[in-house]
């Protein structure tokens, strides 16, 4: 809930509602991107961007290197599985 | 237990450790007593234990584990409210997994579920909203929990529900706020904190400005900190640098995620949907002014508290439970009379044993058990 997990935006699923599909270590699900799209910015322009995902919302953009490092650390600590399982349980919107 | 050589970048860790020792020794020579530095956030507590960071620090630095674990500070009366809501036949009660096992005065949500209540674990408040769309004849309640980090997500979900006119969705709002709580800690008579590691993901939402009072009014240093072990070591060194230099300011160690102004869209959503409560009850800490938010009148239709006229009964913790003293840093987790024996992660008596971010669970899972037993005996904690 508080730690978040890095993922990459792979597609915009609903530009009006600011929803996108994100890929987190191979698991994909729909998330909200309202907090990472600037006013007036086209949602499409953030495809490919890495973001920190908290409870189904992209909360911050991060650079790719940083994202990979964090994912690797979470995996090493065995702390990724729980988050991924929770994400996957409701991955089909 | 992990040590420096297991860090991702052992050389940097060792270098930081040396610098910390060096500064801490000079500060200690001047003050003659150890520094008490608080990591507010449960995520930090978790990293500290996971990596044995306390073992890397000289005795002149004591880490005080703060109350920043939303699950741990949930009062029993609130869990009872959840259970009562979940037991209503029309209700689908949705919650993050972390909250399932928090003990109420009679049952946890997990026990209520086993007894037949419709309690469902969700990953996101958006999933709860999707359930409401799917089951229009049921009332779907989402148990909104967490500090400012998760507030934008629930606020945006309420805005979406309002936009779509979904009448069978509501929040049981138990969001809590960081800044008033840090203020309460600074005002508390039994706590003498010399500096703060501030929560990185709360700051990602609120930015740096709300923390300025810590320096301006209380003259304590504060460093916004990331969640990797090296982040924590670096931030500790930054705190020491301020203390040694005799100045204080808000520094941002986690600038790779935290913008100084926070997140505008997130803050706007929070302000649109939520307003401060006069006070909020914390497990173990009692009532703290302005430390929680509720849903604004305008969105009353999405407020489970109003919809079901909840009265927020206050229910004291069990007598043997010393969570409050641990939360305030007055005693260490292993000093609690029931630590390990009557209270452990399998059968938690207090909330600090429930979440992996709770200080007691951290000690239990990652502490050296033999050393803890020895400490308990030496200090006359009856086993
Ligand atoms: S050991 Fe259990 S009862 Fe004692 S402080 Fe920790 S969580 Fe609370």
From TrEMBL, chain A:
<dbReference type="InterPro" id="IPR019812">
    <property type="entry name" value="Hydgase_assmbl_chp_CS"/>
</dbReference>
<dbReference type="GO" id="GO:1902670">
    <property type="term" value="F:carbon dioxide binding"/>
</dbReference>
<dbReference type="Pfam" id="PF01455">
    <property type="entry name" value="HupF_HypC"/>
</dbReference>
<dbReference type="InterPro" id="IPR001109">
    <property type="entry name" value="Hydrogenase_HupF/HypC"/>
</dbReference>
<comment type="similarity">
    <text>Belongs to the HupF/HypC family.</text>
</comment>
<dbReference type="GO" id="GO:0051604">
    <property type="term" value="P:protein maturation"/>
</dbReference>
<protein>
    <submittedName>
        <fullName>HypC/HybG/HupF family hydrogenase formation chaperone</fullName>
    </submittedName>
</protein>
<dbReference type="GO" id="GO:0005506">
    <property type="term" value="F:iron ion binding"/>
</dbReference>
Automatic annotation (TrEMBL), chain B:
<dbReference type="Pfam" id="PF01924">
    <property type="entry name" value="HypD"/>
</dbReference>
<dbReference type="InterPro" id="IPR042244">
    <property type="entry name" value="HypD_2_sf"/>
</dbReference>
<dbReference type="InterPro" id="IPR002780">
    <property type="entry name" value="Hyd_form_HypD"/>
</dbReference>
<dbReference type="GO" id="GO:0070025">
    <property type="term" value="F:carbon monoxide binding"/>
</dbReference>
<dbReference type="GO" id="GO:0051604">
    <property type="term" value="P:protein maturation"/>
</dbReference>
<dbReference type="GO" id="GO:0051539">
    <property type="term" value="F:4 iron, 4 sulfur cluster binding"/>
</dbReference>
<dbReference type="InterPro" id="IPR042243">
    <property type="entry name" value="HypD_1"/>
</dbReference>
<keyword id="KW-0408">Iron</keyword>
<protein>
    <recommendedName>
        <fullName>Hydrogenase maturation factor</fullName>
    </recommendedName>
</protein>
<dbReference type="GO" id="GO:0005506">
    <property type="term" value="F:iron ion binding"/>
</dbReference>
<keyword id="KW-0479">Metal-binding</keyword>
<comment type="similarity">
    <text>Belongs to the HypD family.</text>
</comment>
């Amino acid at each position: 809930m508080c730690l978040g997990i890095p993922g990459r935006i792979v597609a915009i699923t609903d530009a009006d509602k600011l929803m996108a599909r994100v890929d987190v270590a191979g698991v994909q699900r729909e998330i909200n991107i309202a907090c990472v799209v600037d006013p007036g910015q086209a949602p499409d322009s953030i495809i490919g961007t890495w973001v920190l995902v908290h409870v189904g919302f992209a909360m911050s953009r991060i650079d790719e290197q940083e994202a990979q490092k964090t994912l690797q650390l979470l995996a090493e600590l065995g702390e990724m599985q729980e988050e991924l399982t929770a994400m996957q349980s409701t991955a089909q919107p | 237990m992990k040590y420096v050589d297991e860090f991702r970048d052992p050389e940097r860790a060792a270098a930081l450790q040396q610098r910390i020792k060096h500064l801490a020794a000079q500060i200690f020579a001047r003050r003659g007593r150890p520094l008490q530095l608080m990591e507010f956030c449960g995520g930090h507590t978790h990293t500290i234990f996971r990596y044995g960071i306390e073992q890397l620090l000289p005795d002149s630095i004591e880490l005080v584990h703060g109350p920043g674990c939303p699950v741990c500070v949930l009062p029993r009366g609130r869990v009872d409210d959840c259970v009562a809501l979940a037991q209503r036949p029309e209700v689908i009660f949705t919650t993050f997994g972390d909250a399932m096992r928090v003990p109420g005065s009679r049952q946890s949500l997990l026990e209520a579920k086993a007894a037949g209540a419709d309690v469902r674990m969700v990953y996101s408040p958006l999933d709860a909203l999707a359930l409401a769309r799917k089951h229009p004849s049921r009332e779907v309640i989402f148990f909104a929990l967490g500090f400012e980090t998760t507030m934008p997500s629930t606020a945006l979900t309420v805005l979406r529900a309002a936009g779509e006119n979904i009448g069978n969705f509501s929040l049981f709002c138990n969001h809590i706020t960081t800044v008033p709580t840090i203020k309460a800690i600074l005002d508390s008579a039994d706590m003498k904190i010399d500096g703060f590691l501030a929560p990185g993901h709360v700051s990602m939402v609120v930015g740096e400005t709300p923390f300025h009072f810590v320096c301006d009014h209380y003259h304590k240093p504060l460093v916004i900190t990331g969640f990797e072990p090296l982040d924590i070591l670096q931030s500790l060194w930054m705190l020491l640098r301020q203390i040694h230099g005799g100045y204080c300011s808000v520094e941002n160690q986690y600038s790779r995620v935290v913008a100084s102004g926070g997140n505008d869209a997130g803050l706007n959503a929070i302000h649109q949907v939520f307003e401060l409560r006069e006070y909020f009850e914390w497990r173990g800490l009692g009532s703290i002014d302005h430390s929680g938010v509720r849903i604004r009148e305008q969105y009353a239709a999405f407020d489970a508290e109003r919809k079901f006229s909840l009265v927020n009964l206050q229910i004291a913790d069990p007598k043997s439970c010393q969570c409050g003293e641990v939360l305030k840093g007055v005693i260490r987790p292993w000093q609690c009379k029931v630590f390990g024996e009557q209270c452990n992660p399998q059968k938690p008596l207090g909330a600090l044993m429930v979440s992996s971010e709770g200080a007691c669970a951290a000690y239990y899972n990652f502490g050296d058990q033999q050393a803890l037993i020895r400490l308990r005996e030496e200090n006359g904690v009856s086993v």
